[in-house]
Specification:
The protein is about 20% helix and about 25% strand. It is an alpha+beta fold. Helix 2 (about 25-35) packs across helix 3 (about 40-50). Residues about 90-100 have low confidence and may be disordered.
Length: about 200
């Protein structure tokens, strides 16, 4: 995708704002961040929509979102992930076949059918510790808006908080399951999936 530096910055600002605050920035907030006019931001946003990078809901404020199959350049390098902040949970460490070397690129390279980019979050808390994820670990997240039962998701709750739990869609609600008996499951009628965990990293 051919993006200008300003267009790339707009995508990054929208992504980061949605993860941190649960909603997109306004045109004026984008203009303030970029030190340009609101008209200029509007022109860039329209160009990004035409390029298939952004989408928005008509007549709804803060409705800009990144298209699921759009890959932001800083999410495209399998050896370097943009660190977007902290998250409240995690997923278990995967076991890999023994080899002479550990190839990070092969482990976290785009999988078959993967459309979106990949980013990292640092775990803040121990609600998933029984699955091997500890406070301070880094989870690698594939950006997408849908999940299957049993997948670990970055979920935006109706109250605006973001958490990392195991996703289960049940009869009349969604259950976000922790892996620590000290924490209760979170049951909501709806939530917004922002990504699915594909790996975890830890530094000693």
């Amino acid at each position: 995708m051919n993006l200008t530096p300003k267009q790339l910055k707009i995508l990054q600002l929208i992504r980061d704002c949605r993860l941190a605050r649960g909603f997109s920035p306004t045109m004026q907030e984008l203009a303030n961040e970029l030190s340009v006019s609101k008209v200029t931001v509007f022109e860039h946003v329209e160009a990004l929509i035409k390029k298939g990078a952004l989408q928005r809901e008509a007549n709804k404020a803060r409705s800009l979102s990144i298209c699921e199959d759009a890959i932001i350049p800083d999410e495209a390098n399998p050896l370097q992930f943009p660190l977007l902040g902290k998250i409240a949970a995690g997923r278990p460490i995967e076991k890999f076949a023994q080899d002479d070397k550990l190839n990070i690129e092969e482990i976290f390279a785009p999988r078959i059918g993967q459309k979106g980019g990949t980013f990292a979050l640092q775990v803040d808390g121990d609600s998933m510790k029984d699955e091997g994820i500890m406070h301070g670990d880094y989870v690698i997240v594939e950006r997408r808006e849908t999940a299957r039962n049993g997948e670990r998701v970055v979920a935006l709750l109706p109250d605006g908080e973001t958490t990392l739990k195991t996703f289960y869609k049940e009869k009349d609600h969604i259950r976000l399951q922790p892996a620590n008996p000290e924490f209760e499951p979170i049951c909501v009628t709806e939530c917004q999936v922002q990504g699915v965990v594909i790996g975890v990293m830890r530094r000693y």
